[in-house]
Amino acid sequence: MAHQVLAALPHGTWTSYGDLAAFLGSGAQAVGNHLADTPGVANAYRVLTSQGKVSDGFRWTSPDDEGDVRARLTAAGIRFTVNGAADPAQRVNADDLALLLTGAGDTEADGEDAAQRTAQGQGGETRADRFFRQLAADDSPETVAAVRSLLHRWEEGGGWVGHGTGQVTTSAFLMLGEAGAPGRGIWPLTLYPGSGWRHGGGGVPAPRRARTLHRPRAPRRTPATPQ
């Protein structure tokens, strides 16, 4: 199943060890070990850490696959922010990995302009509309209003907000830098609609039914476990 879904990744997208593990009902470490020990898995190099970085333990498993992995990712249409993280708008989460196998996934081509990155064709609903629809379906009007206020204040302060391609769970990521160009910006924070116990950027468990807040961390100097 892991091999099938990775082979189905559209050009210009990536996923994380944690996303793939959640889709498989496994653990990130087990997924990382399997990919590291199994030659010939299509698009294995497009599985990154949750921060959008190449794992410190990554290695090619086949003599036919060699060279700089970031160059290969760039050739596959992956863009990078100025802090070296893969573009969060191109991330495929666990829910949408499942849709890839049904042919219902969002396979928007890379190279889209800022307007295309925000708009979503179905029924004229934008990605921002979809994010708030998903948020409203799972939480209180007060929380939705607070999130709207947060995003508005972020934009007032000179930042901008982009949205992921996910159909089942659409993220909102706060960006610094050139508007509409994640590859030239900094990605400090991502919000996900949905519920459950997940860790915020400070390592403190978020309350049940609170939104997931994820902040990419700086690269570590010591080898890190795939996430």
Describe this structure in words.
This protein is 31% helix and 11% strand. Helix 2 crosses helix 3 (28-37) and helix 2 (17-24) crosses helix 5 (94-100). The protein has helices spanning 2-7, 17-24, 28-37, 69-75, 94-100, 114-118, 127-138, 141-156; strands at residues 15-16, 47-48, 160-163, 172-177, 185-192, 212-214. Mean pLDDT is 74; it is low at 104-122 and 195-225. It is an alpha+beta fold. It has a 4-stranded antiparallel β-sheet with strand order 3-4-5-6. Strands 1-2 form a two-stranded parallel sheet.
* Order of adjacent strands in the largest pleated sheet: 3-4-5-6
The helix/strand series, from N terminus to C terminus, equals HEHHEHHHHHEEEE
Report Rg.
Answer: 17 Å
Largest sheet: 4 strands, antiparallel
User: What is the number of strand segments?
Assistant: 6
- Tally of DSSP helical segments: 8
Q: Find the structural class using helix and strand composition.
A: alpha+beta
What is the arithmetic mean of pLDDT?
Answer: 74
Strand portion, in percent?
Answer: 5-15%
SSE topology sketch:
Blueprint (H helix, E strand, L loop, with lengths): L1 H6 L7 E2 H8 L3 H10 L9 E2 L20 H7 L18 H7 L13 H5 L8 H12 L2 H16 L3 E4 L8 E6 L7 E8 L19 E3 L13
Parallel strand pairs: 1-2
Antiparallel strand pairs: 3-4, 4-5, 5-6
Helix pairs in contact: 2-3, 2-5
Give a short overview.
With 227 residues, the chain is an alpha+beta fold. Helices cover 31% and strands 11% of the residues.
